[in-house]
Design goal:
Length: 185
Amino acid sequence: MRKKRTNTIAMLTALAMAAIVSGCHKQVASKPAVTKPPQQAAAAPAPAPASAPARTTTAEAARPAPGASLEQMFQLDVKDAFFDYNKSDIRPDAQKALSADAEFLRAHPSVRITIEGHCDERGSEEYNLGLGDRRASSAKRYLVDLGIEGSRIQTMSYGKERPFCTQDNESCWQENRRGHMAMER
């Protein structure tokens, strides 16, 4: 009885968090850029950083309940792509996240997304807007190379204007260097 009640509470908490996390995002298109498809990547990719940021929440740890909305499933299944300092190339951990995102998008062909390019607080506003645009475009190209129709994906850059983490240290900055996936409504 206690285990069943605990599972029910965990499921309700997960659904509530998914509903809270979902929000509207401004949509702005950017021009597409050209990159190598995943199968043409260098034979020996650079090693991944020691650790990608871990942003696991109760909602991410749970699976959507039967009858969950598409937005709730998106919040649970679609992950951000993280980038190295001053770079816009797709790291191995970002390849894994984007491959899972592509699976979700293939399973839900009506879903359209905006990839938001974000940067950490270092650098000028103008530079970071450009870097955020390159990051979002790089993530879009990767998804297109995996077979997702480019017309379903918009990109935009926030540069350093919308940080996920506001502490002044490397682990926090790493969380801000991302291509964030937002479902269009």
